[in-house]
Every structure is written in C-alpha cells, then in structure tokens.
Design goal:
Blueprint: H1 8-32, E1 39-43, H2 50-66, E2 70-74, H3 81-88, E3 96-101, H4 102-111, E4 123-138, H5 147-156, E5 162-165, H6 171-183, E6 188-191, H7 195-204, E7 209-213, H8 214-223, E8 227-231, E9 257-265, H9 270-284, H10 287-295, E10 298-300, H11 306-326
Parallel strand pairs: 1-2, 1-3, 5-6, 5-7
Antiparallel strand pairs: 3-9, 4-7, 4-8, 4-9, 4-10
Helix pairs in contact: 2-9, 4-11, 6-11
Amino acid sequence: MSAPSCTRRDILRSLAAACVLGPSLARAADQDAFPSKPIRMIVPFAPGGSTDVLTRLIGAQLSGRLKQPVTVENRTGASGNIAADYVAKSPPDGYTLVMGSIGTHATNPLIYRDMPYDPVTDFAPIALAGEVTLVLVVHPDLKVQSVKELVQLLKSRPGSISYASGGVGASQHLAAELFKYSTQTSMLHVPYKGSAGALVDLVSGRVPVMFADLPLVLPNIQSGALRALAVCDPVRNAVIPEVMTMQQAGVADYVATAWYALFAPAKTPADPLQILQRNVSAILHEPDTIKSIQDIGAKPGDAVGDKLRAFQLNEIARWKTVVKVAGISMDN
C-alpha cells in the first residue's frame, strides 16, 4: 500500500513551521560560529606598558586558538576611561573587549565624580590576565641605597621630590600614595599618559622616583639605569630575588600590585562569553605562557567569570580607604 500523498494543508503547515523555526536556527548557527570575524582587544594605555605587553601576548595566542585575527588597539586618555567607555558602549557580541586595569575597573569610580560607565554593571568578566609586581625604583643620581634612606630623604625635604606614574588613579599612583601614607612622607605626583611615557623621564632623571610595573623597568634595573629598592609584593620576586619586599625594608603591612583583566560589554551572550573565558583561561595555564609572563616579572591570573567579579569587588573595597585618605580626585 503506497504512502499517502502530502495535501496542500500539510505543505502550508510545513512552511509555517519553517518560518517560525528559521530565525531561531539562524541565531543558533550564528552563536555556534563564534567567532566568525576578527576580535578587537582595546588597551586603555599607550603602547609599551605592561597592559599592552600582556594584551598582545594573550591576543596572539587567542588568535591561533579561535582561527580569527585578534587585533590590539590602544585608546588612551582619562586614566583609561575613554577606552573602557568605548567598550562598554560597543555591541555586546564578544568581538570588542577591553583589557581593564585596577584603575579602569576598580578605583576610577572612587576618583572621578562623573563616570561615563559603571565598572561592574556595564561589563561581563572574562578572565584576570595577570598580576604584575610593582617595584620601587629610583634614578641612580638620587643618592639613596635603601627604602630607609629614601624615607629619611623625603622627611628632610618634604614635597620637593617628585614621583612618576602612568596616570591619576593608576596602580603606580596608588602604590606611591599608600607608601606616603604608611611612611608619613610627602612627594610631588607627576602623572603621565601611560607608564611608557613616565619611563622616559624616569630614566633621564627628570623624575627620580617611581613605583613601576616590573616588566616595564626590568631591563633598566638589569642595566643599572635604575636602582630597585623594594618590590611591593608580599614575597620576593624570582626575577630579581636580591631585591627585598617593602615589608622586609621596614614598611609594615605594605602590599600593592597591578592587575589586568579582560572584560566584554555587559549582556554579551553566554556562548561567546564562555568561549572567550574557556580559551583565555587555557592560554593562561599553558607552560609557555606562564614562563613568558613570569619572565617579564608578572604572574598569570587564575580568576575567570564570577571569580574575577568577586576579585574586582574586593579590590574596589580595598582601595577605597587609600583613595579617601590620600585625597585622590580628578575633581580637585
């Protein structure tokens, strides 16, 4: 017995079902295909700094994993707010990301009265890319050989010695203000548009002191162009093990680190977000990546997704007191 032939009503029902399912299937195909075009990673600071170095290292490996170009763009200004705001207002599709910092995603809201974005609600957390050792360095012309001697000099010449940073609210600025508070000393802050610019004047001796990202100044320490007095981590750094910690140098309970984390715009769909989280996390656990990051004086991050969010919220709370006591504000 032959199968019954399709009636006109059956055909119409099939067409109607296709019309209903079509858009859903198309959306699913689009999500499954992520990424189907180049990804942009926005760096809020100038080329050459630690943020830039880490972003390019991760971006190159992410490109290989996802089989799509990953471009790095530097958008400077307003202590990183310009770049972060740009990404916050970008389409939430996973194709535009920002390598945030302690400034852009923790302390800037404590410093700026009018923020163009919310560092928590306007972003979806991907992964903590790395934590960078901060090191107190001085130009050799500044005749101090230790933290103790620097403190003595600052107390004998209050407010007359300047220090450089990558910008107001940057990790280098916060570390210096914590040092001033902890040692009851004073220095003149000279902010730059990124750490790389600060390094030029630091090496020339125009600004003699900086709490710098170790990757940025390591070659200068090794060459003798700068003198390292102490690292700001709770333990010594394996790259420069001869340099004591700030606590060992006599500044009790002092700890300050720089950190950099990858964020997407809020409301980025779960599929692209999870693909990015999974791949960036895998990159940060690869032995070659770990060695590359450690060789520049940093350590890979281990917080992904919700763990990064918890870390971010803790940092906001931790630095609130320092910002208040130091009176750090862009509205002064």
